[in-house]
Amino acid sequence: MNAKGCLKLSCVLVVSLFLGLLGFLSQSISPHFTTARYVIEVGCRGHINVIPNQADGVSVQYVNGAYLFLIPKNGTLKLRYDDPTRNSSVDMSASFTDGTPIAMPIPTATNWKKGQLGFIPGGTWGSGKSDYFLGTREDYEKVFWKLP
After folding, report:
1. Which domain holds residue 56?
2. By the 8 A CB rule, do 47 and 71 touch?
3. Which one of 39, 40, 44, 118 is most buried, counting C-beta atoms within 10 A?
4. What region, left, alpha or beta, does residue 112 occupy, with left being phi > 0 and alpha being psi -120 to 50 degrees?
5. 11 with 60, same domain?
6. What is the mean pLDDT, run by run of 10 residues, along the chain of 148 residues?
7. Rg for the chain (alpha carbons), in Å?
8. Are residues 87 and 25 in the same domain?
9. Among 54, 99, 98, 97, which residue's Cα sits nearest to residue 79?
């Protein structure tokens, strides 16, 4: 192979490596999307906590393309391992164990009607614990702040 052929091959290899690296990096930094279903025992209200990495915790089930979080009446779910939805963009839904769906309104006065029950994600803390709130708009305003 002459010098011109070696140069062309080298350019092709460099471009291929660059494109491969770019593809790998874009895959590793792009958000991961997942689905989570929260099934909450009838009678549970108030603060809900999902606490990962607990020796006495349970494993999260993966059913029909969604992670299934079974929240007990006391509102605290201990997971045996890390929360599989952590560091992901999550499409969430919530219902009671009897199948009654629970709304997931954004807590504003315009889309959360008085008396409407809502399941509100609160956040994930450094420990990995995730907080949620289940109650009416009025319950939320008593615990947090009055909505405009």
Report:
1. 34-143
2. no
3. 40
4. beta
5. no
6. 55 45 45 85 94 95 93 96 82 94 79 87 75 90 76
7. 23
8. no
9. 54
